[in-house]
Design a protein that fits this description.
Number of helices: 4
């Protein structure tokens, strides 16, 4: 909710921001930490699409990482529920 609202404030499409952040966090081939990769992706997005700068990109990166993490926790929970019990 917060990430979606913040993208509206910045004038960035939420779907575009989440795609960039997810790619940077999960699919990038870089050896940099996830936070740094996501931050850099958001700096590039904010610089190219808005008049805002690094401060706003930092906030957006944090909000999107929290959003992605929350969604991944839900997926992990659903996968765990569908696993058959271990045979001892």
């Amino acid at each position: 909710k917060h990430a979606r609202n913040y993208t509206k404030i910045l004038g960035i499409e939420f779907d575009k921001a989440i795609i960039h952040a997810t790619h940077a966090a999960m699919f990038s081939q870089s050896d940099e930490p996830v936070k740094l990769r996501t931050y850099k992706a958001m700096v590039d997005l904010v610089d190219s699409d808005t008049e805002y700068g690094e401060r706003e990109a930092t906030i957006l990166a944090a909000l999107l990482l929290a959003h992605i993490s929350k969604k991944m926790d839900r997926v992990q929970s659903l996968v765990a529920q569908k696993q058959p019990p271990a045979i001892s």
